[in-house]
Amino acid sequence: MQSPPPFLRIGTRGSPLALAQAHQTRDRLSALHGVEPDRIAIIPISTGGDRLTDVPLSAFGGKGLFSREIEAALAEGIIDIGVHSSKDMATTLPPGLVMPVFLEREDVRDAFISLGHANLESLPEGALFGTSSIRRAAQILRARPDLAIVPFRGNVQTRLRKLGEGVAEATLLAGAGLNRLDMADRIRHWLDPEIFLPAPAQGAIGIEHRADDHRTADIVAPLNHPETARAVKAERAMLQILDGSCRTPIGALTTWRGPQLMLVAELVSPDGRITIKAEGPLGEDTAQADGAAVGRMLKDRAGPDFVKVFSP
Ligand SMILES: NCc1[nH]cc(CCC(=O)O)c1CC(=O)O
């Protein structure tokens, strides 16, 4: 007997976090459409970012590197959707592809992880802090200029193993990833997101598909969480103005101030000494334009030398 064709084919990276996100998406789609989970195929795809594990992402233009092969599979019709951590996505998608759907955001905050220390303040003078994120490095140095930053790449499991090996005494990870992996017990302290602004789009799973694939668009549209989409579109539009590849430490936080949804964004110099902030309200249907306005404000305040100061 021939098995029925898949209802939908999901492309994902093969890391445990990426697979957890793909499974979460499959479970939602399965429940929503009353389709057996085994009719939704999960197809792991190895990406350039998975292979180049020793080089900081900022050294080779970051972002798109985690999605290029998945986007090629979409364009070739091998898969119907790509399920991504939206914070890893380039701000401009390849022609013919769209990312219109965002699942409800997880916790946006970064989490402090250490075997021997309870929080950032209690780290000993000069301690080794592991991170390859230039945003996290800049924010850490701003709070603790005495710490020494050491490169720390690899997936969540690899980074936790490196802590165990003593490569560094502490690190920061996105709480969202740890929650999705059911590893929140590793978290020693949640950072205040108003001080340690998360990466733009952190904590939000995005669904990408071909712009002309209307069947798939109809299947995934109900998964969209409007408030998440509003925030993530604004944060990505802000980032696009600054062309924040992976070379510029940029943080963003979308938060309610009373009845008003606000985007707060910051540029931090890599040594943590200079911080420039901007913020603005996000309208319900104008999030993209409003986010871009915050980006332009930030760029203006940083001045003409901003590339030299913030992305040396
Ligand atoms: N750059 C890797 C990456 N991309 C997305 C997440 C976490 C999940 C998310 O932000 O949705 C992580 C790990 C981390 O930063 O700790």
UniProtKB/TrEMBL annotation:
PROSITE patterns: PORPHOBILINOGEN_DEAM. Pathway: Porphyrin-containing compound metabolism; protoporphyrin-IX biosynthesis; coproporphyrinogen-III from 5-aminolevulinate: step 2/4. The keyword Chaperone does not apply. InterPro entries: HemC, Porphobilin_deaminase_cofac_BS, Porphobilin_deaminase_N, Porphobilinogen_deaminase_C, Porphobilinogen_deaminase_C_sf. One of its GO terms (cellular component) is cytoplasm. Its EC number is 2.5.1.61. GO terms for biological process: protoporphyrinogen IX biosynthetic process. It is an enzyme of class 2 (transferase). Transmembrane segments: none annotated. Its cofactor is dipyrromethane. Residues 230-299 form the Porphobilinogen deaminase C-terminal domain. GO terms for molecular function: hydroxymethylbilane synthase activity. It catalyses: 4 porphobilinogen + H2O = hydroxymethylbilane + 4 NH4(+). Keywords: Porphyrin biosynthesis, Transferase. The modification S-(dipyrrolylmethanemethyl)cysteine is found at residue 246. The porphobilinogen subunits are added to the dipyrromethane group. Tetrapolymerization of the monopyrrole PBG into the hydroxymethylbilane pre-uroporphyrinogen in several discrete steps. Belongs to the HMBS family. Monomer. This is Porphobilinogen deaminase. The lineage of its organism: Bacteria, Pseudomonadati, Pseudomonadota, Alphaproteobacteria, Hyphomicrobiales. The gene is hemC.
